[in-house]
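Q: Entry one of two.
A:
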Amino acid sequence: MTNENPGSTPAAARPRRRPVILVASIVLAVLVIAIGAVVAVNNFAGQQKSESLSALKGDRLNALGDARGKVQPAANAYLAAYKKARNAPASRDQAQKDSQKEKEEFQQASNSARSALQELKSGNDSGDNPVGVAVQQLVESHEDYFDYMEGLVESYPQFEGLFRGDDAAGCNGLFVGSKAASLRERQTLLAQAAAPCRKAASELLQSKNNAYVEFARSFNNKVAELEERAEVTAKGEEKYAEFVRLKDDFVKRADDAEARNAPDAEVQKIADDAKAVNAQIRANRSEFDFAAKRYLAGVKEMPSLVENVFAKEISADIKHFDSVIPAREQILKDTIDVELTAN
């Protein structure tokens, strides 16, 4: 008979608890390691984000600003070279050849600026966060600016050649002046010049430069008004000649009636007819004077309309870009600072 102690644990049963403790220890260790890894990954990701935002605010914005700053001087150099060549004088084709170097330099500056913009945009233009929204706005302003400057250069030969006598546009033919012996001849010469002129100006409607587009619209309207008023004055001149004939006819009729001692009714009829013609003459004169004054005013306004494209419109547009782009750059920088502070 075996003598056992009921309160004691068999020696063989003790080791069974050790694997449980060991497994628990391993699980705990794994959890600690996993938590440490998550923290490390989060810290690394946060560091990467901070570095990316810092690079966006610093190197990428600076690179874009430097590249953008070279675009306008390159455009100005091309415009000056082309105009100098035309004034040599040279044909449009020859002027384009003589200014090819400056045009290529402009294109290189524009391409470099667009590449810098793409670098800034890459991976940063998501609309899901404030930085992405600020980047999108800045990109939009830059793309508008680059399109504007490219259009300024590309469409300049068309604009500059509108009033060149050796270009197909021939808009200088609009100013017929003393070339015409009559107002009808003036209207005919104007119509002949207006057709190719308006066609050439309409090509500017396809330009990427908004100042050229707005000029083309206004210019075509002005030419159409000149044509309309030239027609009115030509008809007025022709009607006046008819009125002179009618006046002579009335004088003959009145003299004849007096010589015949015509009845009062006939004399009254001649007087009434004369009054009606006089009323027509006054109306024609009023219409003629208005059209003539507006025609002359339109001719005088034409040079200013052309000069203001560069003197006012393009200058104002570039000032607008020079105001908007720095403001949006600052918005992006401020937004980045907020994000960096939060991280």
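Q: Entry two of two.
A:
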Amino acid sequence: MSASQRSEPARPARSARSSRGVPGQPGAAPSASGHPDCPDGSGRPDSELLAALLDGMDAALCAFDAEGTVTHWNHEAERILGWTAAEAVGRKGLGGWAARPGDARDVEARLTEAMGATGRRVHEFALLTKDGGRVLVRTQSSGVPGADGRPAGVYCAFSEVHAQVDLERSIALSEALLDDASWNVVLVDADLRVAVVNANAAGALRTARKAAPGRPLGDFLDQGMEEVEAALQHVLAEGAPPAPTELWVTLRDADPDPADGFEGAEGVRYELLDDDEAVRGEGTDRGEAGAAARRRCWRSGFLRLASPLTEEPAPLGVAWIFQDVTEVKGQEQESARMRFRGNQLHRAARAAAECEDPMEAASVHLDFALAGFADHALIDLVLDPPPGAPADRIRLVRAAATPTGAPGPCPPVVPGGIPLAYPESHPALQAVERCGSVRASARRSDESGAVQWATARKWPEGAVHGLCAVLRSRGRTLGVVTFLRTSSRRAFDRTDATYAEDVAARVAASVDLAVRRP
């Protein structure tokens, strides 16, 4: 609260005086018993009520009559300067006791000017304390008119300059954070509803500054909302954490951005890799790119806000200050993923070199590739067409597979020579036909729909995402390797397709060696 706001209660002082004043001093107020407007009729003097009001102010206050005699002196003025009300009230001016003679003339001139002017006047004075020290104060002075409208005195509310500067600095900091800060700032009340947001935070939440106050955070956040509320409740209960916290959230009400690519026949969407190799996304969710755009990582700091006007701090809410580090975290995760996958390829090559059976070596490559990448893996080999059959008809036979119940190693199986009953639009057949990679995801996320989707493609139960990479060696197509993910993992992306092709190249070399063996 500024000094001007704190000085408002002093306006009735023109007809009353502090109980700390000298008895019998002119300007004493009449008693309440003789006041016709006294509502309670208690007989309590107005001067006692006024004294209690003045002494409860946070700002120091003194008042002068038209002759410059001190008529009021509250407790805060006594605290700052050391002079008690009994010592101050009744003195003529401030010179010689509360101000040096050289300063007193300027002070009295300023007060005389304020007495006859309209509105408040703000000045800075150097006053004397009782022990002889000097203190710089900032004052707000205003004239007090008499009953006839002529100036009857002046009151002066003041506080130490450094305290006022601290207050102004705090206000300026708050305004800067809520207007010009490059960080996102959200003030949340004790009920976890948005109170104030700055412009950057409004953009991060995809809303307008005027539309955010009063709304719960759940109107802006989807996934990650529980973590944010838990953090805010922790801050309200125990205070701010010692270090920033990284929170992953998904925003609501964001229109999914269309993925790069083009529409093919039957609504099947094709997408292009960086090397212009076509990757067919059968049933790929078009909102996948939009979902990725809505998922953000916010590096957050929290500050508990408490009222400074209460004896025991009462929580007003939490200041949530955060910065979007999604791009940085994505790069860190991608780097870690690339290092891990590179190490897996290296370890798989060394382990496969120790295998006498080439198909066992191919299985080893898949075992190492599955770690952190997929839940199931299959190897289907191209079966030569029988005599008289069309040469362009693709038939596949199973050569290796992980267990259908739970994820595990991918051992070779003895091919029975019976082709797999894949439908014509099966991703594995499409991969062989196109000599490229094909991604597929279930359109329905419910359990029954996912089961039907996996069953129709002859894949293990629970698979909702598939990635088929063709096996090519010495210019020939040997088969296809399929990686499958359950609903606990995200869909395959282009980076996954590149990694699957690296694994498929190593698997194809081992399969080619097995096919050439007598």
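A: Comment on entry two: The CA atoms of residues 470 and 480 lie 4 Å apart. The two ends are 93 Å apart (CA to CA).
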